[in-house]
Design goal:
Blueprint lengths: L2 H12 L3 H68 L2 H24 L4 H30 L5 H5 L2 H80 L13 H67 L5 H29 L8 E4 H11 L1 H6 L3 E4 L4 E4 L1 H17 L7 E9 L4 E8 L31 H11 L4 E3 L8 E7 L5
Parallel strand pairs: 2-4
Antiparallel strand pairs: 1-3, 4-5, 5-7, 6-7
Helix pairs in contact: 2-3, 2-4, 2-6, 4-6, 6-7, 7-8, 9-11, 11-12
Length: 511
Amino acid sequence: MTQPAVERLRRVAGRWPLRRRVGVFFAMCAALLAALVAATVLALVQFVHAGNEAINRWDPAAQTSQALLTDMINQETGVRGYALAASPDYLQPFDQYSEQQARDEARLRDLVRGDPVLEQNLADFDQMADQWRSQVAIPLISLVNAKDRTAKSASDDAVAKTRFDLVRKAAANLTEGIDRNSRAAVNARRGALIALYVALCVSVALIAGAGIGAWRGLHRWVLAPVDRLALQTREVAAGRNKRQIRPSGPPELRALGRDVERMRRRIADELARLAHAGEELTRSNADLEQFAYVASHDLSEPLRKVANFCQLLERQYGDQLDDRAREYIAYAVDGAKRMQALIADLLTLSRVGRSSESFVPVDMNQALATAMRTLDDQIVASDGGVGFSELPVVYGDPTLLASLFENLVGNAIKYRGEAAPLVTITAVPNREDRTWTFTVADNGIGIDPQYAQRIFAIFQRLHVRDAYPGTGIGLALCRKIVEFHGGRIWLDTSVTSGATFRFTLPERPTT
């Protein structure tokens, strides 16, 4: 093939889709492999057939032909001994091996069936054996039985030797023919084995060549174009949004490159829009933070004044007020205090998650101790107790983790039953994801499983305000603290006595 023809073929193949290239390549490999598999199967069949012929036919045939000659020799020896000693004991081998000869001939006839030469050799042997038996053995036995003195000399005469030599010759011809066929089967088996080895070697060479070809085609058609596309994409991902994607390779990869280029353009436009929106969001967050501070300060101060002046009004003019007026004043003071607590809790909730720069190794035993010091009056007043095992060290914000324990233990004391509250805190490691699972269990009134998700929402209360105080923000704050640290918190609904909360925290800071 000339060089221009090769170049035209390459240009045509270059326009082929990757699916077609791979299909043509594997079709060629499959055709060659199918031919080699057929050759291998044929060689294997021949190998097995030749082996079966040698092992299951000709080896037993050779042994049986030798056994036939042995049968005849034993018969001749028995007749000769009977002729010399005239003892019936010497005639027993003749009868025994006559029967054995018949069995061996039947077996050998089955083994050589289909081979005309060996069938004729076996027939010749059978004829010579019958002639020896009818012309030598039986007449000699008759002479011995008749006590003829010539029996001894007749056993060694020339006729007897000639007849038995013919038997030996027929047996030799039979054995030689069987050996010839056995050697032919062995040679055929050897040739089939060589052909099998050649087919296997060619198959291995074809597979190796196909592997090399597949690797080179994969590198040229897929890996190199994908590497170039990936390099350009990484440059875009690194921040070079104006880096234009120039695809290469098969039509599929070029189409993919064009899609990536369109995506790059959309991402660049979206990033520009997001950058502008981010600036606006930053300004908005700053305004909201300032508003939250001002709102908390400006709202808390009037509420304190309302509460203080209501209490002052009650103290100074209490003797002039009736019970209804004092009740109204108590409502006003309670509302102001609850509003103050609500504002404080909302501010605490809003501040969670602003930054993880304050994360340090936190001894959870110390965080729990801090929470228990805050709750000391409540624990003593309820005659309760808090038991805990050795807690681990995790990365996080010490103040937030202490607040987490404070809310969970505080809830366990608040929602207690008739018995004194008892809170148990444990932690177990999770080796697979390198986290710790903490458990805070109590013996309180418990929580209905149907509210397992609702209780973590803000302002969600399961009881009326008069029964249990609070703002309904505590568990929402716990969830925000845990999720800010890269974990999760849930109510274990499988525990039916009391309430059992579990939460996870990573051993190391999450990225």
